[in-house]
């Protein structure tokens, strides 16, 4: 069955809050009701039909066609089904995601995957700052599920991350995994300054030597069996994440942040 | 009924319900995987005294194990979920955690969880690391050879224990050789365990005893040295009887193992000294599973 498709009529000057469009929230809505659904655009409300053309289809598979970076909160709080964005997404993509999957072909804004506890977020382009992080005022970042970024990510990836997996095919910015409590972050490119700053626990997996705070100690080379399980679990993923087994299970290991208990680890595969 | 000239008694083996789990133990090489498996399944012949009946099920090639190393699968059978959980924790903790290079994983999926690394992780004294991979949780416990990788939970399933058949032979060496052959054939099957030493029991038992403290005692009807004293079921020429006890994950597994085992014995033919095949039961009062030999073998 074809997906329910929303196509943006023209690029908005203000930001549009899109969290109403999830498979769960639209399950009982007719196409006409969806066209009448009021959306916040800046500080006024506008019917969806004025902003998007709506093509009827299954509510379990939503497609949003937009080349604007101002559609915020796409898939926020979604619990099931798939949401596909053909183009770009704004801030708060997949915020509080509980289940199902969200795929964006292009770039996404800041705070993607914040508060997420389940499901998968697939970002074909680049992600902004605070990917899977804690938003100001929250004490926990990513708490479950998986985020895949096929481009680069900004600063503060996985800040306060508690659980779950963040995969980045490109580079990550400064303060990657800052204040991390648990979970796993994989960066196949390079990371910026202060990687792992104030992390308590958790794992950062890298392919390039990071710039660590001075409060990390070198732990030496180790063969870690769980890396094989990790690689196998990702073997069905797309692109570079499916070929981790070729890197083997021997890594150079750093422990830190010793200013915060030092139970976190930074693992670096040989290039 | 005769099979290849050997009489098959018109009787049945009586088995009872158990609960079982399978663990996969991997190591640097097959030798150390087997060492861990043999150690953790030692002293595990009967739930009466050992708490659990356990043994190695098969070797697993490295391409098929969770961490890509050589492994073995181990089956453990107990009378209750709590007995099983206690024995899994003790045996993995004392025999696998301690064994160089090993890792241990669940080899079974079901609705009924059994803790595996859940408590063992505390050996890490706070330095243990949890990893959720592919929806399963693992523990990485720091040990002196690196890390002990251990899945948090395994699962258990209802199973069948106590399937059996008796091999009555002219001499003890003849009975032993026939049973060894049966064990070899049965051990090629998946999902079954022969819990007794080398897969063979010589001390088959009957229910009850003249001593109040004992719930089981020697199966006097099949003891050649009691012929003429008790109501013996042995002919004059029977020199020895050995029993093969079979636990299986399902009734069908025990049935198949019985068929394969008896056929392996009977393939030897009457000249090898096997006089009769029988089975142990308690008149149908003990267990709900009845394995009628003649029905299985036809």
Automatic annotation (TrEMBL), chain A:
Q: Which domain of life is it from?
A: Bacteria
Q: Which GO molecular-function terms appear in the entry? A: formylmethanofuran dehydrogenase activity; transition metal ion binding
InterPro entries for the chain: Formylmethanofuran_DH_suC, Glu_synth_asu_C, Glu_synth_asu_C_sf
Query: Which residue numbers delimit the Glutamate synthase alpha subunit C-terminal domain?
Result: 82-207
Among the GO biological process terms of this entry, one is:
methanogenesis
Protein name per UniProt: Formylmethanofuran dehydrogenase subunit C
TrEMBL record, chain B:
Cellular component terms (Gene Ontology): cytoplasm
- Formylmethanofuran: tetrahydromethanopterin formyltransferase Ftr C-terminal domain: which residues? 146-296
Intracellular or extracellular location(s): Cytoplasm
Q: State any single GO MF term.
A: formylmethanofuran-tetrahydromethanopterin N-formyltransferase activity
Q: Which Pfam families match?
A: FTR, FTR_C
What are the protein's UniProt keywords? Acyltransferase, Cytoplasm, One-carbon metabolism, Transferase
Q: What is its EC number?
A: 2.3.1.101
The name on file for this protein is Formylmethanofuran--tetrahydromethanopterin formyltransferase
Can you name the source organism? Thiocapsa rosea
- From the UniProt record, report the name of the gene that encodes this protein: ffsA
């Amino acid at each position: 069955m074809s997906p329910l498709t929303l196509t943006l009529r023209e690029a908005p000057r203000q930001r549009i809050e899109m969290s109403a469009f999830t498979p769960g929230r639209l399950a009982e809505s007719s196409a006409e009701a969806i066209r009448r659904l009021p959306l916040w655009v800046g500080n006024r409300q506008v019917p969806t039909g004025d902003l998007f053309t709506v093509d009827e289809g299954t509510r379990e598979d939503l497609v949003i066609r937009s080349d604007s970076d101002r559609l915020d909160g796409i898939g926020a709080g979604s619990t099931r089904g798939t949401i596909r964005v053909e183009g770009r997404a704004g801030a708060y993509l997949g915020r509080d995601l509980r289940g199902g999957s969200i795929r964006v072909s292009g770039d996404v804004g800041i705070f993607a995957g914040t508060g997420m506890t389940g499901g998968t977020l697939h970002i074909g382009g680049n992600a902004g700052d605070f990917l899977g992080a804690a938003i100001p005022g929250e004490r926990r970042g990513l708490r479950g599920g998986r985020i895949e970024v096929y481009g680069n990510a900004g600063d503060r990836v996985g800040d306060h991350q508690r659980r779950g997996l963040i995969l980045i095919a490109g580079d990550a910015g400064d303060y990657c995994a800052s204040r991390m409590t648990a979970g796993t972050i994989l960066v196949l490119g390079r990371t910026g300054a202060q990687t792992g700053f104030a992390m308590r626990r958790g794992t950062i997996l890298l392919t390039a030597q990071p710039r660590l705070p001075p409060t990390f100690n070198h732990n030496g080379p180790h063969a870690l069996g769980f890396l094989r399980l990790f690689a196998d679990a990702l073997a069905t993923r797309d692109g570079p994440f499916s070929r981790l087994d070729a890197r083997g299970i021997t890594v150079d290991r750093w422990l830190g942040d010793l200013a915060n208990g030092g139970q976190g680890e930074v693992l670096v595969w040989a290039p | 009924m005769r099979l290849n000239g050997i009489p098959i008694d018109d009787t049945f083996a009586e088995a009872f319900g158990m609960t079982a789990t399978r663990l996969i133990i991997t190591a640097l090489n097959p030798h150390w995987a087997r060492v861990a498996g043999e150690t953790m399944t030692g002293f595990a012949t009967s739930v009466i005294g050992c708490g659990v009946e356990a043994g190695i099920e098969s070797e697993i090639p490295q391409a098929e194990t969770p961490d890509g190393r050589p492994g073995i699968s181990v089956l453990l059978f107990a009378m209750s979920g709590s007995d099983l959980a206690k024995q899994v924790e003790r045996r993995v903790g004392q025999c696998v955690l301690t064994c160089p290079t090993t890792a241990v994983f669940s080899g079974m999926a079901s609705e009924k969880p059994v803790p595996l690394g859940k408590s063992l992780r505390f050996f890490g004294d706070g330095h243990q690391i949890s990893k959720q991979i592919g929806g399963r949780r693992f523990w990485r416990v720091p040990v002196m050879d690196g890390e002990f990788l251990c899945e948090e939970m395994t699962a258990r399933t209802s199973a069948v224990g106590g399937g059996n058949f008796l091999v009555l032979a002219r001499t003890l060496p003849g009975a032993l050789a026939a049973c060894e052959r049966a064990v070899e054939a049965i051990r090629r099957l998946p999902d079954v365990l022969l819990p007794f030493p080398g897969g063979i029991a010589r001390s088959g038992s009957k229910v009850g005893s003249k001593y109040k403290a004992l719930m089981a005692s020697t199966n006097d009807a099949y003891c050649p040295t009691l012929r003429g004293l008790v109501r013996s079921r042995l002919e004059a020429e029977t020199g020895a009887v050995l029993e093969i006890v079979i636990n299986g994950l399902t009734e069908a597994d025990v049935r198949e193992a019985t068929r394969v085992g008896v056929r392996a014995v009977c393939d030897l033919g009457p000249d090898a000294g096997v006089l009769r095949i029988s089975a142990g039961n308690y008149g149908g009062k003990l267990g709900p599973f009845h394995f009628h030999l003649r029905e299985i073998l036809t």
